[in-house]
What does this fold into?
Amino acid sequence: MTEPAPAPSAPTTRPARLTVLSGPTAVGKGTIMAELRRRSPELWISVSATTREPRPGEVDGVHYHFLTGERFDALVEAGEMLEWAVVHGRNRYGTPRGPVDRMLAAGRPVFLEVDLQGARQVRGAMPEAQLVFLAPPSWEELVHRLVGRGTEGPEERERRLATAREELRAVPEFDHVVVNDDVGRATDELMALMGL
It folds into this structure.
């Protein structure tokens, strides 16, 4: 008597995963995000919440979720912020957890771009998240990019470079490092890490 043939196995799919991108000022996070958005419309990029007023042309739910201070505080107290911080001593910014959880449950990959403090908070709240550090090809190139932007004065530039030195020391805390020496190549590497 022969054994029945085993039933064909169902295709295996990896569960959707949250990928967090962080890195120093002027490393090109916004440029990489724009390229990811262009190439992967299925990727859901989290929209941050803030207590600041909308600037001209900003749309609630597209650029930010604009919240009152009371609503923001209530979300923090309820554990509904994956990460949050007070920026420039005034306004609060953060990542609402609900939309992230809903997208992951629906099987969509989720992408979040935050600073080092935010990445550490996400790691504490969702240890399964994949943390990726976007690094410059060299310190000299990072300084060149920051100066080349021409958007900061000398004092602000020095403050940002001091913060960048601290952020670069945190590289061992991340799961992966992607060097942004070329936008296309760096985006390819990031997409491979996300399984896109």
